[in-house]
Design a protein that fits this description.
Blueprint lengths: L7 H12 L3 E7 L3 E2 L5 E13 L4 E13 L4 E6 L4 E3 L2 E6 L6 E7 L8 E7 L4 E6 H4 L14 E3 L5 E7 L5 E2 L26 E2 L19 E7 L4 E4 L7 E8 L5 E8 L15 E7 L5 E3 L5 E8 L5 E8 L9 E6 L5 E5 L29 E8 L2 E8 L5 E3 L8 E8 L2 E8 L2 E9 L12 E4 L7 E8 L15 E8 L10 E5 L13 H9 L2 E6 L8 H5 L8 H16 L7 E6 L1 H12 L6 E5 L5 H4 L6 H8 L11 H9 L13 E6 L8 H12 L4 E6 L9 H18 L2
Parallel strand pairs: 13-14, 34-35, 34-36, 36-37, 37-38, 38-39
Antiparallel strand pairs: 1-3, 2-3, 3-4, 4-5, 4-6, 7-8, 8-9, 9-10, 11-12, 12-15, 15-16, 17-18, 18-19, 19-20, 21-22, 22-23, 23-24, 25-26, 26-27, 28-29, 29-30, 30-31, 32-33, 33-35
Helix pairs in contact: 1-3, 1-11, 5-6
GO biological process, one term: proteolysis
Catalytic activity: Cleavage of an N-acetyl or N-formyl amino acid from the N-terminus of a polypeptide
Keywords: Cytoplasm, Hydrolase
Length: 729
């Protein structure tokens, strides 16, 4: 049997090479300009990100392009200049006319000063404003995340709207004594000013936060900068029980529209949780009156205002239940105040029909110029496609049905110029542009590649569909099927009969789409076949598929992965004596289940922040509702611990099967993980050690659930590859 034994230097060189492929993160189209011959052209600004291993950081860079078009097609397009790195920009946004640009920038503090935040306004060739937000001290840090954060120009281009942490009053010990600082005392009394006086006894008060990746977010406030007056005001009138975010200016700039999340009785983790009670609100700038625009018993996000200022589309889910599900597309008419559902959740995916909406957000710019159609991308089984939706009729058309199969994402659309990203498991992200055809002719969309990338040699891939046997059917949701993406090395010593690495995704309600993924591509280049399993419960297959899994974790999902592995080993030339598992989060949960339930199949295992004991996780995670929902139990914030529920959680956990485990296990844990706290992995590590099983634990400080720090990601790959090579000899 050919052995896969590249040296450490070869592995690190391979990772260095593949990790240099940049990701495409944002795009912005400039205003149309006319040449002296009557032709139209515009600039396209793009932002990319790339791993810099030498600096151990993710760098951002920008590149500009020119697009010449006649309104119906693109005549010519190409790059304008080379790349340049973007330093310290947290947010940036061009004004509606395209003549101004706002930038939120972080600036390192001098000596012992803390880092500062500046809000800048740029004209076409100079900086016209630079405002030190930290010195003004009207609020805490500005939010630059995509959960709450925004940077929105008023239609008049005179004001900027953003979200920041509420200013917390200074606090001190009961026994602190210090001289009053100069300039802080009241001129009449000599005592410190009331608003500056620290509050005694508040020094150690606990402030709730919004969980994983949002641990510095507690009480968001909406803030407005008057550009001319250099003044900042914090908007009033927002109810105390709401946390506002994703805000924009209403038509005519009379007020602000925002999403408000309920935070009573306490905050639950919000990242990747599109099931938290929230609604759409409008706050009037003059009277401070706050008005509810959507139902207040649902979860809403991603509101987008049409170019004519008449309609707002947004996504909607039910509250609680699976964290990700098939979403509804809703629309609010600003003038009639009528709300309609444009697209309902889809029970079952069917080719040729719209698969349903399974996306974390709508594109920031998603409306066509007619203010009637919107663009979105969504998972369609194991690929991702772009669709146009007619909001008046609810009809949908794929813009990528005749394009290459893979993963398509909309970056922006402006004046019907459409910018998208495309990749496959063997083809890193490329930049595509098109003109959106007139209504009724969208299927004729012609995509042009503006920035190509060389395909990675030595990788072939395909998607296969599997049907569970009758005894494994869900009694309520019969006839469901699922997919897997198989990647194979097409060159090298193991190409004929490679060892197999099985990777189930996390979530569990997420999906592997056929796009570029660094770890699977790198493992394939090392000489492994990689099987990415979209078991029942994954997104992109219809809401029934999502609903089939809660209550059946540890059985249905485990059997789906095992069925897939057995089928692939039967039908493909793979080395069945060298099969391993790699998984993170719920994928780690499945990997630990599989090595315990099917110990004869697997010979090595690597898990990243795995769930191993749902019963012990429920009291420590930022998402306790997940533990109950996926176990098949109802979640109530005021429920007390129940022995029967704990028994059920433990019964569905991998820890139950630890006595049967024989495979060597490598664990990778993020010290700051709030979602699946590292105590989970430690619990499994100790159980394995107590049974004398080969195990190794890697502990990554400063890393959370994703283990996405550049150093942790690179070290994780090297250790994973070496572990698999060692134990699959």
């Amino acid at each position: 049997v050919p052995q896969v034994q590249p040296r450490v230097e070869e592995l690190s060189e391979l990772y260095r090479e593949l990790s240099q492929h940049p990701g495409l993160s944002a795009a912005c189209l400039g205003p149309d300009l006319t040449t002296q011959y009557g032709g139209k052209y515009c600039s396209l600004y793009t932002e990319w990100s790339q791993r810099d291993l030498a600096r151990a950081e993710n760098i951002k860079f920008c590149r500009q392009y020119l697009i010449f078009h006649d309104g119906a097609s693109i005549v010519y397009s190409g790059p304008a200049g080379t790349c340049s790195e973007i330093k310290d920009e947290l947010l940036s946004r061009e004004s509606p006319s395209g003549t101004l640009k706002a930038v939120l920038r972080k600036v390192p503090g001098k000596e012992k000063e803390k880092e500062k935040q500046f809000l800048e306004v740029w004209d076409q060739n100079r900086k016209v404003k630079s405002i030190d937000l930290t010195a003004l001290d009207k609020h805490g840090s500005v939010y630059d995340d995509d959960q709450f954060g925004c940077l929105a120009w008023s239609h008049s281009e005179t004001h900027l709207l953003y979200v920041a942490e509420k200013k917390h009053p200074k606090a001190e010990s009961f026994f602190e004594i210090k001289a009053p600082e100069l300039g802080t005392s009241d001129e009449d009394t000599g005592h410190p000013k009331k608003e500056d006086a620290p509050i005694k006894g508040e020094k150690f008060v606990y402030h709730e936060d919004w969980g994983e990746t949002l641990s510095t977010r507690s009480v968001p406030v909406l803030c407005v900068l008057d550009i001319e007056g250099n003044s900042i005001s914090v908007l009033e009138g927002i109810p105390e029980h709401l946390s506002p975010g994703q805000a924009f200016w209403s038509p005519e700039d009379t007020g602000v529209v925002f999403v408000g999340w309920w935070h009573e009785p306490f905050r639950l983790g919000l990242r990747h949780c599109t099931n938290r009670r929230s609604a759409l609100f409008y706050v009037d700038l003059t009277g401070g009156r706050c008005e509810l625009l959507s139902e207040d018993t649902r979860a809403v996000w991603s509101p987008r205002l049409s170019p004519d200022g008449c309609r707002i589309v947004y996504l909607e889910n039910n509250v609680l239940g699976p964290h990700q599900q098939c979403s509804r597309l809703c629309m609010y008419d600003w003038y009639t105040k009528h709300t309609s559902t444009v697209l309902e959740a889809v029970p079952r995916q069917a080719w040729g029909a719209f698969p349903g909406i399974y996306c974390g957000a709508l594109p920031g710019m998603c409306w066509a110029a007619d203010s009637r159609r919107i663009l979105l991308d969504t998972a369609q089984r194991s690929q991702q496609d772009v669709f146009v939706v007619d909001t008046a009729t609810g009809t949908t058309t794929s813009l990528t049905a005749d394009a290459p199969q893979g993963s398509w994402s909309v970056l922006t659309i402006d004046r019907d110029l459409l910018v998208a990203r495309f990749s496959t498991p063997s083809y890193p992200p490329v930049l595509k542009v098109a003109v959106l055809p007139a209504a009724g002719h969208e299927a004729q969309t012609q995509w042009i590649c503006l920035q190509d990338a060389p395909p990675v040699p030595g990788i072939t891939w395909g998607i296969r569909t599997l049907q569970p046997p009758p005894e494994q059917e869900h009694p309520q949701y019969r006839g469901l099927d699922f997919d897997a993406i198989l990647m194979r090395p097409s060159e090298g010593p193991t190409a004929q009969k490679p060892p197999l690495v099985v990777m189930p995704h996390g979530g569990p309600h997420s999906v592997f789409t056929a796009g570029w993924m660094l770890y699977p591509a790198a493992l394939c280049r090392v000489g492994f076949a990689v099987l990415l399993v979209n078991y029942r419960g994954s997104l992109g297959f219809g809401q029934d598929n999502v609903a089939s899994l809660p209550g059946n974790v540890g059985t249905q999902d485990v059997r789906d992965v095992q069925l897939c592995v057995e089928r692939v080993l039967q039908e493909e030339t793979l080395d069945a004596s060298r099969v391993a598992l790699v998984g993170g989060s719920h994928g780690g949960f499945l990997a630990c289940h599989l090595i315990g339930q099917f110990p004869d199949t697997y010979h090595a295992c690597v898990v990243r922040n795995p769930v191993v004991n749902i019963a012990s996780m429920v009291a420590t995670t930022d998402i306790p509702d997940w533990c109950l929902t996926e176990t098949g139990l109802p979640y109530k914030p005021d429920a007390l611990p129940d022995p029967a529920q704990w028994t059920e959680m433990l019964h569905k956990s991998p820890m139950r099967y630890v006595d049967q485990v024989r495979a060597p296990v490598l664990l990778m844990l993020g010290e700051d993980d709030r979602r699946v706290p590292p105590k989970q992995g430690l619990e499994y590590y100790r159980a394995l050690k107590a049974r004398g099983l080969p195990t190794r634990l890697l502990w990554y400080p400063g890393n959370n659930h994703a283990l996405a720090g550049i150093e942790a990601e690179a070290d994780g790959f090297m250790n994973m590859a070496l572990w698999l090579l060692k134990h699959l000899q």
